[in-house]
Amino acid sequence: MLRTILLGPPGAGKGTQAVKIVEKYNIPHISTGDIFRENIKNETELGNRAKAYMDRGELVPDELVVEIATDRLTKDDCKNGFLLDGFPRTIFQAEKLDEFLAQRGEKIDKVINIDVEKDALVKRITGRRVCKSCGASYHVVNIPPKKDGVCDLCNGELIQRADDTEETVLNRIDVYNKQTKPLVDYYDKAGVIINIDGNKDLDDVLADIVKGLGK
Ligand code: ADP
Ligand code: ADP
Ligand code: ZN
């Protein structure tokens, strides 16, 4: 049983580590960003409502996000735990999540807080490429695919996310510092924070996370 959250600024490596963590612990990876992007691709009403905020690098309104996330958490595959990636992102969202879990007699076990210095974040995000088909994440310099522009896993096309421009990134980092960083304190008070140095290599970061989770 592992109910856990990945916290950290945009580009910290949450999505990359999430793939490895869910494989090891056999829990579902729940990324609100992925859910929104899927809805934008399918031109759903939810996608239409989220798109303008995402393009500007702002947060999607709390009520909308909380509903999407808690709805996902009621699914059967979350019975033995889950890994939340990119949710919660505000104190309001965290309080709503706690209320939702408390009603079910559950609580968050661990919060993995990945920190990376700002210059590296900007380089990581502007160099990020994602697979259009399976969502796998690469980096043009740090983690290049075997073949340029092509996904190692599914041969899908690698593209740049609409919000991965330098200008939007700087805004997203500001938004993180103002609205999301207070969650570090929130979960520290609850005694569940694991602090991870995300500046290290992929495998070292993963090893630190596994050590922190202690299972
Ligand atoms: P997040 O989900 O936190 O926004 P990602 O996992 O998508 O971050 O990582 C952002 C970018 O940085 C991606 O291009 C990824 O390949 C790259 N990256 C992730 N972790 C590392 C690392 N430890 N060292 C170097 N580059 C990394
Ligand atoms: P990152 O790689 O920057 O961590 P995500 O994929 O998690 O990005 O999120 C991309 C965008 O989706 C955010 O900039 C925001 O507009 C929206 N979003 C995702 N999760 C949330 C959330 N919990 N609250 C508000 N907005 C969110
Ligand atoms: Zn792929």
Which radius of gyration do the C-alpha atoms yield? 16 Å
Query: Residue ranges: pLDDT <50 for 5 or more in a row?
Result: none
Strand order of the largest sheet: 2-3-1-4-8
Mean pLDDT score, rounded?
96
Percent of residues in helical segments?
Answer: 40-55%
Quaternary: single chain
Principal-axes shape call: globular
Output the helix-strand order.
EHEHHHEHEHEEEHHEH
User: Ends: how far apart?
Assistant: 10 Å
Question: Structural class, from helix and strand content?
Answer: alpha/beta
Total helix count?
Answer: 9
Strand content: 15-25%
Bound molecules: adenosine-5'-diphosphate, zinc ion
Count of β-strands? 8
**Biggest sheet descriptor:** 5 strands, parallel
Descriptive overview:
The protein is α/β, with parallel strands linked by helices and 215 residues long. 48% of the residues lie in helices and 16% in strands. The protein has nine helices and eight strands. A five-stranded parallel beta sheet has the order 2-3-1-4-8, sandwiched between helices. The chain binds adenosine-5'-diphosphate (ADP) (2 copies) and zinc ion. The site of one adenosine-5'-diphosphate has 19 residues, from helix 2 and helix 3.
